[in-house]
Amino acid sequence: MSGCLEPLFEPGEPIRRLYPDLPGLGASSGDGVSSTRDVLDRVDAFIDEAIGDEPFLLVGESYGGYLSRALVQRRRAQVLGLALICPMVVAEASARRVPPRTVRRPDPELIARLEPVEAAEFTDVAVVESAETLERFRAEVAPGLAAGDPAPVARIRADYGLEEPIERGEPFTAPTLILAGRQDWIVGYRDQWRLVERYPAATFAVLDVAGHNLQFERPDLFGALLRDWLDRVAGEPRS
Prior knowledge:
Elements: H1 2-5, H2 36-50, E1 56-61, H3 63-75, E2 79-85, H4 108-112, H5 116-123, H6 131-146, H7 150-158, E3 176-181, H8 190-193, E4 202-207, H9 214-217, H10 219-235
Parallel strand pairs: 1-2, 2-3, 3-4
């Protein structure tokens, strides 16, 4: 997340950024975590510890987007804006409405030069195969894949969905951004459209030539839409 978000901020910009590792990933222990409900509770507790009752912005990507939508329900009075990047909407992979796997910018010579394990991890989600996207993958995605603890990750995946519908009660009216990749065969883009009416201040964008790593497959457009979201948040009237 820091790799795609930090370049959007000017030096000295007065927004404190926090990038927590989810349980079972990076430096966060997965002990005692056996479900998405447990993960949500841990992240909620982290907010109490790191932010308290201050207002904040929330950005979630993929599974993090699923968690972020649930956190909004718990803390909607605190959340000044929500950005969802390729958010998972349907927990069960077989129930997602996803497009067929399509590589829009293939580079077979590049892929042939990679070690088999790296080639498999990169091409598993790549819609744009290029030296630039490979470099971003190596810097921003591969370290996260390597830092996972398989045991808690497996337990979480076995109880992946939350029991109740996430969006309930009144719609969330703070500025929202929902970004999806037109060729995202991991979470798709059609299920995300179902969210729009629950977020009446949302910009919804489906980017062509982009998949589950749209943040560095279409970096200029990604940056423009994220900055627009930040500007919309800043322009909201507050008491």
